[in-house]
Structure formats: C-alpha cells, structure tokens
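User: Could you check the structure of this?
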Amino acid sequence: MTIAHQRVDDVHVFDLQGQLNSGNAASAESDILAQVTGGARKVVLDLTALDYISSAGLRVVLVAAKRLKQAGGKLVLAGMQPHVREVFDVSGFLAILNVAPDRQSALSELAT
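Assistant: Sure, the predicted structure tokens are below.
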C-alpha cells in the first residue's frame, strides 16, 4: 500500500492506494496521527484507489476519527469503491463516520 499526503489549504488529504491490512495498518496509523498530533484538524482520507480494507484498516480509520474529534477536528472519507464501502457498511462505520462521494465533495464539506 502507498499513502500520499498533501495539503489543500487547511485540509490534509491522504490518498490511500492498494490494500490497508494488518501488514501496513500500524504504518498508516502513524502517518495519519503524526499530522493530527502536528495540528491537522481537517482530514480527508481519499479511498478512491483503495482496493481492500481489513479490520486492522478499519481500526486505523476509527482511531483517526476519534483523535480528530477529541481535538475538535473532523475526518471525511471520500471516493469509496463499492466493495470497500460494503466493509464499512457491514461494520456499522457508515453510520458514525462522515462520507463523501469524492475528494471535491469532501473538501467542500470541510470548507464550511
């Protein structure tokens, strides 16, 4: 899996590509939380190129969302593939996380 990070104004965007699983979840969590610890309060996880997410990957997303909420920030997931969205749905995460259809929509949601 690869993670690319960029800033769009005051929003930190992480592009996740490949598979987010137990083999790389700790590294992904570390990358994302380092930005939150450094002051990021608006974060988009762009999942357009994410092919697979395991329970370890779901934990990364949940930890990031919780940490941002505690810091007064917000996480938005963008561009989920249908099979990845199904994992979030079955786990019940769609009911508790902010989801946008694409990156631009996520950025717009955080601009308000």
